Auxin-responsive protein SAUR21
Amino acid sequence: MGIRFPGGPQVKQVIRRVLSAPMAWAVPKGHLAVYVGETEQKWYVVPISYLKHPSFQSLMRWAEEEFGYDHPMGGLPIPCKEETFIDITSSLNCS
C-alpha cells in the first residue's frame, strides 16, 4: 500500500529528485527539501504531509510554473517571499 498525493506523478518526481540530491542525507525520512526566496534562496525541510494541504499545493503549482520539477539544486525551489512561506507553513503546523 502506498501513499497517494494530489498531483500524482509530479509529486513523485519531486520526492525522487530530492532523495537523489547531494544534501539528501540531511533530509529526514518523511520530509522534503525546498528552497524558498525570490532572489536569495534559503533551504528548508518540511514534512511530506504538507503536500496534501491546498495552501502548500498552490505554492507547488507556482514552483512548477516558474521552474518545473527538474531542478539541478535537488530541492524544490519555491519563488515566494520567505515571510509568505513561513506564514503558510506556520498555519499548517497549527492544523
